[in-house]
């Protein structure tokens, strides 16, 4: 609004902590329905993910959207999406093993 009204943009919007705290790389939403539906929506930021899920009695419908741009192909975003999709297709033990390794070595 400030730019539209030829006013100075408040310095808060240029503060690094504000920029980091408002950059949501993962946007998720649970959309429970009784029908076998799948919803999609895009990420909030260019290097992010939009993840929508519909938990059901015996399954879960999941959509994950990543905008593929040059910045994403050169970053970890594409690799992360590939890892998530692979993990979702593996037995439960694989997911458990991954998180155990991740928590012990990467955090």
UniProtKB/TrEMBL annotation:
Identify one Pfam family in the record. Carn_acyltransf
- Family affiliation: Belongs to the carnitine/choline acetyltransferase family.
- List each coiled-coil range: none
**Which GO molecular function entries does the Swiss-Prot or TrEMBL record give?**
carnitine O-acetyltransferase activity
Q: Which GO terms describe its cellular component?
A: peroxisome
> Which UniProt keywords are present, listed alphabetically?
Transferase
Kindly list the biological process annotations in GO that this record carries. Answer: carnitine metabolic process, CoA-linked
**Name the UniProt record assigns to this protein:** Carnitine O-acetyltransferase
Identify the residues that the record assigns to the Choline/carnitine acyltransferase domain, covering every copy: 2-65
């Amino acid at each position: 609004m400030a730019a539209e009204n030829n006013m100075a943009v408040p310095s808060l919007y240029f503060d690094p902590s504000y920029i980091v705290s408002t950059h949501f790389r993962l946007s998720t939403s649970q959309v429970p329905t009784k029908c076998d539906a799948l919803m999609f929506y895009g990420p909030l930021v260019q290097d992010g993910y939009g993840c929508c899920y519909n938990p059901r009695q015996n399954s879960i419908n999941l959509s994950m959207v990543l905008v593929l741009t040059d910045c994403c192909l050169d970053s970890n975003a594409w690799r992360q999406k590939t890892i998530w999709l692979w993990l979702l297709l593996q037995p439960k033990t694989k997911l458990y093993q991954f998180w155990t390794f991740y928590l012990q070595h990467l955090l």
